[in-house]
């Protein structure tokens, strides 16, 4: 399971399906069991049966609550007394802040100074201490690990941690348990916590499921990594999909993704705003740009799914309403 003390080194181990099952038990009554949404318009457009897992309706407005809750639930008493630390461009920050407060610990969050104002405000509103940094010139991982060491805080990484990956996998677990086997599952990809967690579940509950990751065009490090067979690091990408603006996959997420994922597709910012509009207009759903990645790949026709059952993860809905309105207006 999570840690292995061989050679006195605390080494992170790859999580497995049983870890996702245990995470699901811990999340019972804490996270929402989010609905599956369907649309005849979508089904007709892509000649398939499409099931949207609505994680924008999850607590804090994104699936990140699952991994954060699970990771904090695994801490011991002493660790909880000292507090937790996270670095995030937004949703993970809110998730750790809320899960920390509800599990009687305190959260410090390292966030980029240009993070969406709604995400900064929400994180502070959940009672977290926020430490800002410049995401184009400073290394958030270095800042976070310095702070963690100085104050003996437990670091909860946004994706590269077995308990986080296992927690994120519970979203796909709900989808498969409710809907049965699926032919193709499309999952947005940042650092790969959601995709890796989904892969662990798919392999058990729907073994023939084709897994596809979807990244922003400007930040296709995952696609490059899969092609090269090693983790490729890119400069901080500028994309509307701020939740997937990661520079590299994780040491835990990459091997799982490499083994289980068939393909990684990319979508442009304009495809993301078109998809936001589609969700608003046709499905009455308020979805942030990053949350649209997987759906955009489908709706833009990047993949043939005819006559299949297709799962699409909608990952989040946190965006300032003013900015949301501006994006839809500019695009019109
Ligand atoms: C974090 C996040 C992602 C990317 O998830 P990873 O686990 O880093 O791949 C996608 N969408 C939203 C809304 C997110 O908050």
UniProtKB/TrEMBL annotation:
Signal peptide: none annotated. SUPFAM superfamilies: Tryptophan synthase beta subunit-like PLP-dependent enzymes (SSF53686). The keyword Acyltransferase does not apply. Its cofactor is pyridoxal 5'-phosphate. Transmembrane segments: none annotated. Belongs to the serine/threonine dehydratase family. This is Threo-3-hydroxy-L-aspartate ammonia-lyase. It comes from Kushneria phosphatilytica.
């Amino acid at each position: 399971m999570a840690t292995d003390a061989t050679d006195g080194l605390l080494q992170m181990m790859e999580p497995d399906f049983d870890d996702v099952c245990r995470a699901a038990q811990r999340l019972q009554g804490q996270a929402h069991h989010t609905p599956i949404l369907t649309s005849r318009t979508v089904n007709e457009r892509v000649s398939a049966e499409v099931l949207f897992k609505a994680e924008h309706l999850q607590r804090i407005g994104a699936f990140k609550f699952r991994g954060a809750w699970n990771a904090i639930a695994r801490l011991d008493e002493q660790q909880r007394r000292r507090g937790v630390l996270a670095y995030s461009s937004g949703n993970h920050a809110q998730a750790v802040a809320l899960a920390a407060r509800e599990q009687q610990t305190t959260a410090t969050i390292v966030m980029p100074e240009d993070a969406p104002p709604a995400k900064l405000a929400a994180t502070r509103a959940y009672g977290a201490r926020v430490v800002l940094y410049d995401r184009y010139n400073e290394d958030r991982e270095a800042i976070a690990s310095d702070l963690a060491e100085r104050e003996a805080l437990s670091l909860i990484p946004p994706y590269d941690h077995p308990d986080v990956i296992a927690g994120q996998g519970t979203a796909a677990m709900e989808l498969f348990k409710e809907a049965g086997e699926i032919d193709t599952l499309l999952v947005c990809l940042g650092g790969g916590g959601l995709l890796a967690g989904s892969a662990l579940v798919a392999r058990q509950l729907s073994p023939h499921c084709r897994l596809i990751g979807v990244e922003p065009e400007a930040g296709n490090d995952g696609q490059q990594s899969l092609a090269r067979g090693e983790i490729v690091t890119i400069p901080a990408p500028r994309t509307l999909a701020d939740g997937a603006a990661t520079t590299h996959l994780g040491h835990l997420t990459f091997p799982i993704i490499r083994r289980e994922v068939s393909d990684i597709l990319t979508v442009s910012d304009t495809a993301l705003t078109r998809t936001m509009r589609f969700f608003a207009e046709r499905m009455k759903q308020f979805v942030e740009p990053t949350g649209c990645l997987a759906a955009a790949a489908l709706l833009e026709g990047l993949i043939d799914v005819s006559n299949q059952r297709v799962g699409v993860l909608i990952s989040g809905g946190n965006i300032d309403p003013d900015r949301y309105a501006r994006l839809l207006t500019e695009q019109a």
